[in-house]
Each structure stands twice: as C-alpha cells, then as structure tokens.
Specification:
The protein is of the alpha+beta class and 202 residues long. It is 54% helix and 12% strand. It is built from 9 helices and 5 strands, in the order H-E-E-H-E-H-H-H-H-H-H-E-E-H. Strands 1-3-2-4-5 form a 5-stranded mixed β-sheet. Strand 2, helix 2 and strand 3 form a beta-alpha-beta unit. The longest helix is centred in the first third of the chain and has 19 residues.
Length: 202
C-alpha cells in the first residue's frame, strides 16, 4: 500500500506543467475534523476516496454518526486520508482546495459520486469529474488547477499519510480509532454500541 502511494508520487499531478526547480520547505498539512474538541469520544477514520467500502461506510454509517453524535457534541471526528492511488490523491487535493470550511461538504460529494468519477475512462476524465464536484462546491477552475498542480503540497500529504499509516498499523480502509482503540469496518449499530459504552465511562 505504501508502495502504491510512492508510485502515485511519480505521477502525482494530473496537469501538464512540472517546471518547478526551486527547493522550498515542505508545506504544513493537517487533518480536518468535525465536532467539539472537548467531546468525550474521539474518532479517527482512515479512509480512501477511491475505496468502495469507505463510500458505503460514509453512506450507511457516517451520516447517522454525524447526526446523532458529532452534531450533538458527543463525538469529535477526524478524517485521515489514505492514498492507494493517484485518483484518491487528486480527490483529496480537490477536497482540500476549498479549505476547512468546504472540506467535509466536498468529501460528501466525493463519496456519494465515487462510482462516477473514480470509474471514469481516463485520467483526464477523472480530473474533469473531480472539477465538476469542485464547481458544485463553489470552487473556481483556476483555483482547482493550482491545487491539483501543487506538487510540494501533494508530496507533504503523502509523507504525512505514510507516517500516520505506519505508526498506527493500519492495514486497510476504513479503519477506525475510537478513543485510541482500533476497529475495522462496522455497522452503525455496532459503532453506536461502542460509542455509548465510551460515553458511559466515568
């Protein structure tokens, strides 16, 4: 999986220009979160935008989790992106292009429309589909071009992903860490039971 991410670095940016020769400090990158930082339960999800199981989790579990626990201040949720392929990386660059305010809205569209954009017939078609999603979120074409071609940012994202992925011993997606305890994909009922047990602790 890490090898795939490394391979994605080579073909990282979809656009044409690769002219940068100046060395610059790697940009800082951060995870995006929802909910109260003071929530008793902290959930970190490792997910890839091209992972079908992650899209299913988003549709069948995350929406209810957000309504019942995140929006009510009981859970603080963080998404950590996993880059198994270049398409997943490009999707993350589009999601992050709108900043923290738009990130989770674009994430919603990336997962709900995954079967359309991730299965497009060519890399160029994938980019166009991703731009369509970005436009629906209010992003301008020039901004998306800049984000997709920001190689230092993409490299920094991959480096952070590799560090976190290996440190946490993640082997597949989606993987959840609930107050530090690792769990694989699950139903909402199972997730709810774990959260409620954590909330009940003194």
């Amino acid at each position: 999986m890490i090898a795939l991410a490394a391979a994605a670095t080579a073909a990282m940016t979809p656009a044409l220009a690769q002219e940068t020769t100046t060395e610059a400090a790697a940009p800082a990158v951060s995870d995006y979160s929802l909910g109260s930082p003071d929530a008793k339960v902290k959930i970190v999800e490792y997910a890839s935008f091209t992972c079908p199981h992650c899209a299913d989790f988003h549709d069948n579990v995350f929406t209810q989790l957000k309504k019942d626990y995140i929006d009510t201040g009981k859970v603080h949720f963080t998404l950590r992106e996993v880059y198994f392929d270049r398409y997943g990386l490009w999707a993350a660059l589009i999601a992050r292009c709108g900043g923290e305010m738009r990130y989770f809205g674009i994430q919603d569209m990336l997962f709900s429309k995954q079967k359309e954009w991730a299965a497009a017939e060519s890399p160029q078609a994938v980019v166009e589909q991703l731009k369509t999603i970005g436009r629906a979120a209010g992003l301008e074409d020039a901004a998306m071009e800049a984000c997709l071609n920001d190689k230092p940012h993409a490299e920094a994202l991959i480096k952070q992903f590799q560090t976190n992925f290996e440190a946490d011993g993640v082997q597949g997606t989606p993987t959840l860490f609930i107050n530090g305890s690792k769990h694989s994909n699950m139903t909402y009922a199972d997730l709810k039971a774990i959260i409620d047990a954590e909330l009940a602790k003194e």
